[in-house]
Amino acid sequence: MRILREGYNAYWEILSHQQKEYMVLFFALVLVQRKFRDYFKALLADWVLWVPAVAALGMYALVRVEPRYVAPFLHCYG
Fold first, then answer.
1. Residue ranges of the alpha helices (H) in 1-78?
2. Which end of the chain, N or C, is less packed with Cβ atoms under 10 Å?
3. Burial of residue 70 (number of CB atoms within 10 Å: 0-12, 13-18, 19+)
4. Distance (Å, rounded) from C-alpha 63 to C-alpha 56?
């Protein structure tokens, strides 16, 4: 459990401190949508794009999370 917590903390550090502009862009895209449900329906419809990225991020969380390793997978969202 300690390893998963460290991985989670590393992802939080990357998204909240190092890559703030991507979080702002994500929330801006959600707010631009007329309905929140429409955005999430579109996100679920494109599961082929984000499921492999989530799987890769999960595997890196078990080993080692560094920005240079996980950056390509974080850009698959949005």
1. 2-13, 20-32, 36-45, 47-63, 67-74
2. N
3. buried
4. 11
Place of tokens 């949005």: 78
What 3-state DSSP class applies to 77? coil
Angle between helices 36-45 and 20-32 (to 10 degrees): 110
Is 0.85 surpassed by the pTM of this model?
no
Q: State both tokens at 37.
A: 């449900």
Tens place of pLDDT for every residue, the chain, 78 residues?
A: 888 888 888 888 887 877 777 778 878 877 887 777 877 888 889 888 888 888 888 888 888 887 777 777 766 654
